Amino acid sequence: MSTRKTSLTDKQAKNGTSKYVLERCASVNEYYDIAFKVMLLGDSSVGKTCALVRFKDGAFLGGNFISTVGIDFRNKVVDVDNLKVKLQIWDTAGQERFRSVTHAYYRDAQALLLLYDITSKLSFDNIRAWLTEIHEYAQKDVVIMLLGNKADMVADRVVKKEDGEKLAKEYGVPFMETSAKTGVNVELAFLAIAKELKHRATQQQNEPKFQIHDYIESQKHKSSCCGLM
Ligand SMILES: Nc1nc2c(ncn2[C@@H]2O[C@H](COP(=O)(O)OP(=O)(O)OP(=O)(O)O)[C@@H](O)[C@H]2O)c(=O)[nH]1
């Protein structure tokens, strides 16, 4: 965990602010009913940190790219069916040299958001290797969601949306395309995960199972008027 400070400092330096540290202290005391650990995974530069900052702060970290060092986390409490659900979201370094550090955190995670970059074929091709790693190190019943990020970069797209859908179907995981830059589907991805985890933890025997795929589709359609996809 000695690496966490380094990555925070790097990203703060980029923003010229130390507000993240203050926010983190405040959020430690924020009231919640139930908490879950979520991890962001995927190749370096696919947009894991930006997706987290978009969800947490509603902002986009543009400018020069500074790679995460090791692992870092941020908390966010969301309302799910009148319960306060705290998501402790771990932002991992995509670079190969930090893999052994991040492996140690897999086992505690209840959900994994696995990202690729729609403008990078390599990041998409590497998803299979990430899934192999997940099956090796994560809990058997971990919730996995596949995200094709940078959906705003239409002109540079090299991975078709249908290819993302096909891969997700093959592994039986939910999928959507996101943009940390415009915010498209970022909140929906985290909320769908929060709902799935909350339902798993509190579900009564006679209650119908929460269907994450159906939820995502219904929300996407509901929001299509407002720029979501
Ligand atoms: N256009 C666009 N750029 C993005 C998006 N998400 C991230 N970026 C840019 O992509 C670069 C990498 O983003 P990061 O969030 O730092 O990537 P990361 O996956 O955390 O990378 P590592 O920390 O090395 O694992 C940065 O220059 C971001 O500004 C997006 O949705 N759209």
Order of strands across the main sheet: 2-3-1-4-5-6
Main CATH class: Alpha Beta
CATH topology value: Rossmann fold
Number of strands: 6
Helix and strand succession? HHEHEEHEHHEHEHH
Low-confidence stretches: 1-26, 224-228
Helix-strand category: alpha/beta
Helical content band: 40-55%
Shape, please?
Answer: globular
- Please give the radius of gyration in angstroms: 17 Å
Mean pLDDT across residues: 85
Strand percent estimate = 15-25%
Largest sheet: 6 strands, mixed
Bound small molecules, by name, code or SMILES, are: guanosine-5'-triphosphate
CATH superfamily: P-loop containing nucleotide triphosphate hydrolases
Distance between the termini: 37 Å
Query: What count of helical segments does DSSP give?
Result: 9
CATH architecture: 3-Layer(aba) Sandwich
Number of domains: 1
